[in-house]
Write a structure and sequence with these properties.
about 290 residues, mainly alpha, Glycerol uptake facilitator protein, about 0% strand, transmembrane, Aquaporin-like, For/NO2_transpt, transmembrane helix, membrane
Length: about 290
């Protein structure tokens, strides 16, 4: 038993040494796997070191800011309704869907799906415990959801007042998001979490703001165009439908948000954080 523990400790020391030796690349060369991983682990640990109040406020901010994507989604849907087919409208929403994500990620607010893999890496690297990871996830999710509730209430009121969309628009979007079997929403959410984890990795790999904006736009536009379920945007979409339409009931909202959160977490933590980390570990051991 002692020998096995010693081997694990030696392996962890080798991993830490290899990460420490990952040097910054020249300006004109791409970052290495080790450099990106090191940056992600450091950024993840910085989030762990923040106070709970700071984390909650930052995640609440992200929940509010994602509402700008929803505002544009509703406005574009209402503007195009009757001019082109509804299927075409749904696909065209991918043009405006990324705006809230750009605001959040460049503004460094804490969005659960973008931070899932980032926050998992310090745990995989044995710098943080599973309990601390779960507590941090809980805080981020709570802040994102509360921010989403607040912006949903505001937009459900202001949209009709400005005549930029109406309650029927809100209802149609909410029904479109939830009109799937639970297993479909879950698998769709895993794929969305995978994409968002990749987004975080690719943003860390980029060297300038313009590249980051382009990466965020492409990844989130793909997510929207394919109709994959994102828990935090979906929270605003479905909750807005819940408070303004009889077609969305509370149980349906709870089922959606639970499946979407779990699926997004699994996609980001396993398909990005674990696989990227293990690929690096096997390279070190090799």
């Amino acid at each position: 038993m002692a020998t096995q523990q010693d081997n694990k400790s030696k392996e962890q020391q080798d991993i830490d040494k290899e990460l420490e030796n990952s040097k910054a690349s020249e300006a004109d060369t791409a970052k290495s796997h080790g450099e990106i991983l090191k940056q992600q682990i450091i950024e993840g640990q910085e989030t762990y070191d923040k106070s709970p109040v700071s984390i909650l406020l930052s995640s609440l901010t992200a929940g509010l800011e994602i509402g700008f994507s929803y505002l544009l989604i509703c406005t574009l849907f209402f503007f195009l309704e009757g001019k082109i087919s509804e299927d075409s409208i749904i696909k065209s929403l991918s043009l405006v869907y990324p705006i809230g994500f750009i605001m959040i990620i460049l503004g460094q607010s804490i969005l659960f799906t973008e931070q899932t893999s980032l926050l998992t890496l310090p745990f995989l690297n044995k710098k943080r415990s599973l309990g601390s990871l779960m507590r941090l996830w809980g805080l981020v999710i709570l802040g994102n959801l509360i921010g989403g509730y607040l912006i949903a209430f505001l937009l459900v009121w202001i949209g009709p007042q400005l005549n930029i969309f109406n309650l029927e628009t809100i209802e149609k979007i909410a029904v479109h998001v939830t009109d799937y079997h639970g297993s479909v929403i879950f698998i769709s959410s895993i794929l969305a979490g995978w994409l968002m984890g990749l987004l975080s990795w690719l943003v860390a790999a980029s060297k300038d703001t313009l590249s980051r904006i382009l990466i965020i736009y492409i990844i989130t536009a793909v997510l929207a165009f394919t109709g994959l379920h994102h828990s935090i945007v979906g929270n605003v979409e479905v909750f807005a439908g819940l408070i303004s339409s009889s077609k969305i009931v509370f149980v349906e909202y709870l089922s959606f948000i639970a499946l979407a959160l779990f699926g997004n977490a699994l996609g980001g933590a396993f398909f990005v954080a674990l696989l990227k980390y293990r690929a690096f570990v096997y390279d070190v051991k090799g």
